Amino acid sequence: MSREITHKTIPTQEGLENKIVIENLNVSYSDGTESLRNVSLAIPNHAITVLFGPAGGGKSTLLRTINRLNDLADVVHLSGHIWLDGEDLLDPRIDVIALRRRVGMVFARPVVLPMTILQNMTYGLELAGIRSRDYMEKTVERSLRAAALWDEVRDRLKEPAVALSGGQQQRLCLARVLALEPEVILLDEPTSGLDPISTGKVEASLQELKQLYTIILVPHSIQQAARTADYAAFILNGQLIEYTRGKKIFVNPQEQRTEDYVEGRFG
Amino acid sequence: MKSVKSVVSRSKRHNLIQRLGFAGMTLAAIVTIIPIILIVIYIFWQGAPATSWEFLSGFPREGMRAGGILPAIVGTFWLTLGTGVIAVPLGIGAAIYLAEYAPDNRWTRIIRIAIINLAGIPSVVYGLFGLGLFVLFLQFGTSILAGSLTLAIMTLPIIISTSEEALRAVPNSFRVVSVSLGGTQWQTIRRIVLPQALPGILTGVILGLERAAGETAPILFTVAAFFLPQLPSSVFDSTMALPYHLFVISTQVPGMPIRIQYGTAVVLLTFVLSMNIIATIIRSYTRARRQW
After folding, report:
1. Do A100 and B182 touch (CB under 8 A)?
2. In whole angstroms, how far apart are CA B150 and each of A160, A241, B93, B137, B218?
3. A43 touches A68 (CB < 8 A)
């Protein structure tokens, strides 16, 4: 993959189509922190694309720009394009609310809403205007199963969600996103607060989910990046340094800076 | 050996200082509680014998030297209700604007300073302002409407600042998550933020209304009647009210039986204290149930 890409010229890889194409994206905040400079990359459908690099490099900004959650932040400059199926997400005229249903997000710290497990699951559906009890029940079960949580909570759906353990809460957050049937799932260090067993469950879920969704993951360690990546992008100081298919970026990086980071010389 | 000894004696000395400190603070806490207990006991001791059913449900007789205080009780009830109807929606609305929508700029800083200063204005000045604006200029006359409006303006800063604080105490991560799940800002406020902030808001509302119920100066020129042996029938009627009635029978009527004065004080104090207790119960009940 070249860094000079536009959505028209990006080659499809082994039958995979590009779900998202980011083109010359620039973002900066009023306090001057964590900005993105001229980032371009294509993110394929039905794969896990990993964005890794040191903290403060712009990975979270990139995620939050894709679902326009950055609208809530103090962004002073935003330019470039993010094409989702050929539609520019940064176009001021797009329906941001509908976009956020198409592009779901799981955060680093599991934030369950102060209500029951079931209400957490149906919250987004109700906001979307869905009223059918039958549809909701089916969707809740299907989503909880997909997040590997159903067996643990099926008998306690009416309990407060905070009663769940940290790992269960994070899987609930994932299930809650899945219930909206998004096309893209953004995960910002989703396992940073979890123990290795819970982390394993989440990672296993992601491997299943990529059959159906486009997944963009900011991992909490290089090891996780190497375990999960179908595509991997190294982001440093707001710039995309290297972007490759598969795991070769971790074994045989082309850029010196990638190599230094992967081998633990800085970070 | 010597150094160990000096360390031990130093830690002993620190221990003593700490104990003295705690003792002093406990004493300060007790001293603050004593006056309120004494006031309540004294008022009830003096006034309880007067508070019969006839006193609560009857009209004043013999130049208020006998009979009951029903018109004043009813008046204070309507004034408090009227204040609530005006001040609660305005106050909560303003708090939502300030906490959830307003950007941090010169304009909102001016609003905040105005609210703080509003809280600092002496209540008699509100009374005078109410007289000028509502009674005379808007020609509401001395009426429940004018009195409620005046009390509402006085109460607004309390409701706004406590409500804003309650809204700001709701973790921001809830808002971000709600928006990320496809919620609009208003849906997020209505379904997540407001329910979580409601106990704090209610506490502020009750504290504000309690202050309104007990104030004399703002109603002095705007609504309160010296003696009016009938109940108000519309918001354009003036009315008797407990605080002003207490002022009148304590200072303006010669030969007033003391038990009627204290009986009135008991009723007013009970009204205000029970609102306070309700606020405390709401707060402690919901704090125990809070999920964050």
Report:
1. yes
2. 44, 65, 19, 14, 6
3. no
Q: What is the ipTM for the molecules in this complex?
A: 0.86
Q: 3-state DSSP: chain A helix, strand, coil percent, rounded to 5?
A: 35, 25, 40
In order along its 292 residues, chain B shows pLDDT tens digits of 556 666 677 778 888 899 999 999 999 999 999 998 999 999 999 888 888 888 888 888 777 777 888 888 999 999 999 999 999 999 999 999 999 998 888 998 998 899 989 888 999 999 999 999 998 999 888 889 999 999 999 999 999 999 999 999 999 999 999 999 999 999 999 999 999 999 889 989 998 999 999 898 898 888 887 888 788 888 888 888 889 889 988 888 888 888 888 999 999 999 999 988 988 888 888 777 665 5
Residues in chain A: 267
Give the nearest partner residue to B182 out of A101, A109, A173, using CB atoms.
Answer: A101
Q: How many CB atoms neighbour CB A132 within 10 A? A: 10
Nearest-CB residue to B196 (from A101, A114, A160): A114
Instruction: Find the DSSP H helices in chain A.
Output: 59-66, 96-102, 117-127, 133-146, 150-153, 166-178, 196-209, 222-228, 248-251, 256-262
Name the residue facing B173 among A67, A111, A124 (closest C-beta): A111
Query: pTM for this one?
Result: 0.82
Q: Are A80 and A90 in contact (CB under 8 A)?
A: yes
The two three-digit tokens of residue B240, written as one number = 């008797």
**Count of H-run helices and E-run strands, chain B:** 12, 2
Domains of chain B: 75-289 (1.10.3720.10)
For residue B291, give how far its alpha carbon lies from the nearest alpha carbon of chain A (Å).
Answer: 6
With an 8 Å Cβ cutoff, are A114 and B192 in contact?
yes
